[in-house]
């Protein structure tokens, strides 16, 4: 045998044995890490991430590496990966979730060999599960739908890339679905150009891949001659498609692993526009899974603000005052309100930590809508040592957004700052007066069209109408349901009026909120706390009516359920209460208007129709409510009251609406309000 070959063989055997020893040493190290985790779990206070300890270990590694003639940056990079994996191993032990481990199904977009599948497998390997089954889906939406219906336990989707930026479709899915972020993963993306065996780079005329991958490699593609970009549903899927492709001039951008696994030739490597290319993924669940407070965490939220000067600066200032580090801020347009935006924010810290908890509470009072998408372990690279986790403590007694004094006292020197917001294109709140009107129930397409035109001509700016009707008698007209909702939406669109309609059950929220600009909680549902909690998660204005036997304090506490959920766009409605008096359908509590406006920042409107019960009393009660300072009215009107299927006795006619407008105009003008 050639002595050189023998020397080469001996050297390779030495390398193989050293590699095996490295694996054994890593396994030994991670066994010791689990013992450390057990000790921290028993202690109950020590954090998973010990910055001082990690700095000492890093210093020792660099010192020993340099003594042995190794590169210090190389040693630092290896240690960072080891420390990251060590922290992940500690998390389930410290949280005590190992005993609750189970096998789970995780859905991702793409096929086996895609970046999504590789990143998901890496993340799930260190979570507290007894293994996981990865399930590929064609589209992002398919993953979310599978998660919502219970076909999978988790959804795993990309949220942003270090080159291409945010992935808008996933942001939209987070807004439209009540899902929770429970973990994240950051994955190195190393694109290659692959083709069928024997094909050369010069032959390629079509390159297919996921749109994000094409964007990330735009510089490379531009340098090729006359290349057509062909979007594909997935990078690995694009590679797989080449196996059935008859043309030789088609290539795919994918990972090297996906190419090799399918027997493709790699024509070019490192083709991304930037050397460092990373994609951040989110693990989504139907329920929150907040980590142990000792785990370094990140909190994601989405909020919307009033479209006024300085509101964003004020919101961001709240985080600055709390010493919170923002790792992401992004705006997304609101499809139903042009040139207004939702803001996505990621902030370091646990939402139950004192400083961040106070900041979120203060921010909630400054927003129209705030929703915490989740608190989860922080895995973003380069942020490991920014902050040690702040210990979470028992949450302090919540400060109510609507302060409810049991016994009215002297008016405070400075009342609450009034809330204003938009319902469609209509502003409600301080300095504005709104008239909501329409029939009690949507009875037919022609009826709601005629009714909308009638109330619009009489000065109404928001169209009301019941598609689902809660009736005392089971034999009374219950509404047209979804059909009526479609008619109401069409009428509002034709007359350029936002629509408000009643929501009865949690199950109807998605269908109703997709059509209506504002959702009404009727008097019978004011104490339906499960419904109120779900409405708190929506980014839709809510009209909350006072219960027939409810006190002012109870109305405010009902509103608090919605506000606490993150939805700050709540309008309170006084609609009359049940007393011993029988001359009217209910007793309109006019005094509730100034009392509520002293106790809360929320807009207050009045429903004189349900209090009066008869047509002749509606206009006088409405004028009294406006004079008392109400921010608006909601009144029932019908193009032909005698033919109405419900509440015909209190429905206003065309002439009544004209008289109402004539009476309201001088009152509203004298108060300096805009109509």
Q: Would you write up a description of this structure?
A:
With 675 residues, this protein is α/β, with parallel strands linked by helices. 37% of the residues lie in helices and 21% in strands. The protein contains 21 helices and 25 strands. The strands form five sheets. Strands 18-19-20-21-22-23-24-25 form an eight-stranded parallel beta barrel, surrounded by five helices. Strands 1, 2, 3, 4, 5 and 11 form a six-stranded mixed sheet that branches. A five-stranded mixed sheet has the order 8-7-9-6-10. Helix 1 packs parallel to helix 3 (72-95) and helix 11 runs antiparallel to helix 12 (354-364). The longest helix is centred in the first third of the chain and has 41 residues, at 3-43. The protein is elongated, with a radius of gyration of 31 Å. The protein starts with a helix and ends in a 5-residue tail after the last helix. Mean pLDDT is 88; it is low at 383-389 and 404-414.
- Summing up helix and strand content along with how strands pair, one would put the structural category as alpha/beta
- The fraction of residues in strands falls at 15-25%
Give the overall silhouette. Answer: elongated
Major β-sheet annotation: 8 strands, parallel, barrel
User: What count of helical segments does DSSP give?
Assistant: 21
* Rg, Å, rounded: 31 Å
Helix content: 25-40%
- Contiguous uncertain segments of 5+ residues: 383-389, 404-414
End-to-end gap: 99 Å
Strand order of the largest sheet: 18-19-20-21-22-23-24-25
Secondary structure: number of strands: 25
Give the SSE layout.
Layout lengths: L2 H41 L7 H17 L4 H24 L8 E6 L5 H10 L7 E6 L2 H9 L5 E8 L3 E2 L1 H9 L3 E9 L2 E5 L10 E4 L1 H6 L1 H6 L4 E4 L3 H7 L8 E6 H6 L3 E5 L8 E8 L11 E8 L6 H11 L4 E9 L2 E12 L5 H11 L4 E9 L42 E4 L2 E4 L4 E5 L6 H13 L4 E3 L17 H13 L4 E4 L6 H5 L4 E4 L7 H7 L6 E4 L6 H13 L5 E5 L17 H8 L4 E3 L1 H5 L2 H13 L4 E5 L17 H17 L5
Parallel strand pairs: 1-2, 1-3, 7-8, 7-9, 18-19, 18-25, 19-20, 20-21, 21-22, 22-23, 23-24, 24-25
Antiparallel strand pairs: 3-4, 3-11, 5-11, 6-9, 6-10, 12-14, 12-15, 13-14, 16-17
Helix pairs in contact: 1-3, 2-3, 11-12, 13-14, 16-17, 20-21
């Amino acid at each position: 045998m050639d002595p050189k070959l023998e020397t080469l063989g001996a050297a390779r055997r030495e390398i193989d044995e050293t590699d095996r020893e490295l694996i054994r040493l890593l396994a030994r190290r991670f066994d010791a890490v689990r013992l450390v985790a057990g000790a921290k779990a028993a202690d109950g206070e020590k954090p998973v991430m010990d910055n001082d300890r990690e700095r000492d270990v890093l210093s020792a590694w660099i010192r020993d590496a340099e003594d042995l003639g190794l590169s210090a940056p190389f040693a630092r990079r290896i240690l960072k990966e080891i420390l990251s994996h060590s922290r992940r191993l500690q998390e389930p032990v410290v949280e005590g979730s190992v005993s609750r481990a189970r096998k789970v199904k995780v859905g991702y977009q793409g096929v086996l060999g895609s970046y999504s599948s590789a990143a998901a497998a890496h993340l799930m390997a260190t979570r507290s599960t007894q293994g996981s089954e990865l399930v590929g889906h064609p589209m992002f939406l398919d993953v979310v739908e599978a998660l919502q219906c219970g076909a999978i336990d988790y959804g795993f989707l990309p949220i942003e890339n270090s080159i291409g930026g945010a992935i808008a479709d996933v942001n939209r899915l987070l807004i439209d679905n009540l899902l929770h972020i429970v973990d994240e993963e950051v994955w190195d993306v190393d694109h290659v150009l692959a083709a069928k065996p024997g094909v050369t780079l010069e032959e390629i005329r079509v390159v297919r891949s996921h749109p994000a991958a094409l964007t990330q490699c735009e510089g490379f593609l531009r340098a090729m001659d006359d290349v057509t970009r062909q979007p594909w549903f997935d990078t690995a899927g694009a590679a797989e498609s080449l196996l059935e492709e008859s043309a030789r001039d088609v290539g795919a951008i994918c990972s090297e692993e996906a190419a090799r696994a399918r027997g493709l030739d790699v024509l070019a490597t490192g083709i991304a526009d930037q050397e460092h290319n990373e994609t951040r993924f989110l693990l989504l669940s139907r329920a929150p899974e907040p980590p142990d407070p000792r785990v370094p965490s990140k909190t994601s939220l989405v909020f919307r603000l009033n479209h006024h000067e300085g509101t964003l600066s004020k919101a961001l200032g709240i985080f600055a005052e709390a010493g919170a580090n923002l790792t992401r801020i992004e705006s997304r347009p609101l499809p139903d309100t042009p040139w207004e935006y939702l803001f996505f924010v990621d902030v370091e810290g646990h939402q139950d930590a004192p400083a961040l908890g106070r900041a979120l509470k203060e921010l909630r009072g400054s927003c129209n809508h705030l929703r915490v998408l989740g608190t989860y372990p922080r895995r973003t690279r380069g942020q490991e040592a920014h902050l040690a986790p702040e210990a979470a403590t028992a949450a302090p007694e919540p400060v109510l957004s609507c302060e409810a004094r049991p016994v009215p006292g002297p008016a405070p020197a400075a009342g609450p700052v009034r809330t204003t917001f938009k319902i469609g294109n209509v502003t409600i709140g301080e300095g504005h007066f709104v008239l909501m009107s329409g029939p009690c129930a949507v009875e037919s397409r022609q009826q709601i069209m005629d009714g909308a035109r009638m109330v619009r001509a009489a000065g109404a700016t928001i169209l009301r109408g019941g598609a689902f009707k809660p009736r005392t008698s089971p034999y009374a007209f219950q509404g047209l349901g979804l059909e009526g909702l479609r008619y109401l939406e069409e009428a509002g669109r034709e007359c350029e009026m936002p629509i408000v309609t009643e929501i009865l059950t949690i199950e109807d929220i998605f269908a109703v909120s997709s059509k209506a600009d504002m959702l009404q909680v009727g008097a019978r549902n004011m104490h339906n706390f499960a419904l109120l909690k779900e409405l708190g998660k929506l980014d839709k204005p809510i009209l909350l009516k006072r219960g027939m036997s409810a006190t002012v304090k109870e109305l405010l506490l009902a509103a608090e359920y919605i506000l606490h959920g993150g939805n700050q766009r709540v309008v309170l409605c006084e609609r009359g209460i049940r007393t011993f008096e029988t001359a009217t359908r209910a007793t309109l509590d006019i005094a509730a208007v100034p009392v509520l406006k002293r106790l809360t920042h929320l807009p207050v409107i009045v429903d004189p129709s349900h209090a009066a019960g008869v047509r002749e009393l509606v206009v006088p009660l409405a004028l009294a409510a406006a004079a008392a300072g109400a921010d608006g009215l909601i009144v029932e009107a019908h193009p032909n009251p005698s033919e109405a299927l419900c509440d015909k006795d209190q429905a206003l006619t065309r002439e009544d609406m004209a008289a109402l407008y004539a009476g309201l105009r001088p009152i509203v003008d004298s108060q300096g309000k805009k109509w």
